[in-house]
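User: Hey, quick favor. My workstation is busy. Could you predict this chain's structure for me?
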Amino acid sequence: MSGRLEGRVVLVTGGARGIGAATCELAAREGASVVITDVLDAEGKALAEAIRASGGRAAYVPLDVSREEAWSAAMERTEREFGALHALVNNAAIARDGDVEEETLEGWNRVLAVNLTGSWLGMKAALPLLRRAGGGSIVNVASIYGTVGGNGAAAAYHATKGAMRVMTKNAALRYARERIRVNSIHPGFIDTPMIAPFLKDEAGNRSRMAQWIEAMTPLKRVGTPAEVAEVIVFVASDAASYMTGSEVYVDGGWTAA
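Assistant: No problem, here it is.
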């Protein structure tokens, strides 16, 4: 590893599995002290232990991103344990399938609470620490479905990811003067626990959905969490020091088609 995050402290939400876990693992290998946050306590603790066992620095902190008081506690522990915060990765997200008519108010509010409000609360809580560190990076993990309408389903998910895209640009303009960079990452179809159940049929073969994704993606395959993590770590590092307000697509060419 090149030490792109040597001496940095990075907090990742939804860090226990999928893209979040891959980001935590790579950030640790690149020299960062990693704060893994999630509501999946067993998986989060196991990941922190694995990173420490391999010589890295990591702590697991339970965090429901939709609760402001939980964010305050997570930031207090981060500063107490590691002394600073240099990068926040807002990765935690949930999804529901309903279209505009099928979605319920309860479901809509829950998706917004985790995906959008959770990311806003994360930025709000992290900014004082980033400011004290002399600057830093916020990476908001949005989606290709924050830019395109997909197939008309998952209305709440699309709404949150589209809002994250513009919220990122708004914050980037506001905090550029303080050397705090804010960028969004837009993954396409990635083999994570969120979509993995839809990629195989009952016999364990590639599902019709997997075949559709491959046919629609110019690179003709589903992406991996590690491929997204590489881009997140790059954007969080000084290698991307002249990037802010940018939206970076990791989608196999989906949005270019």
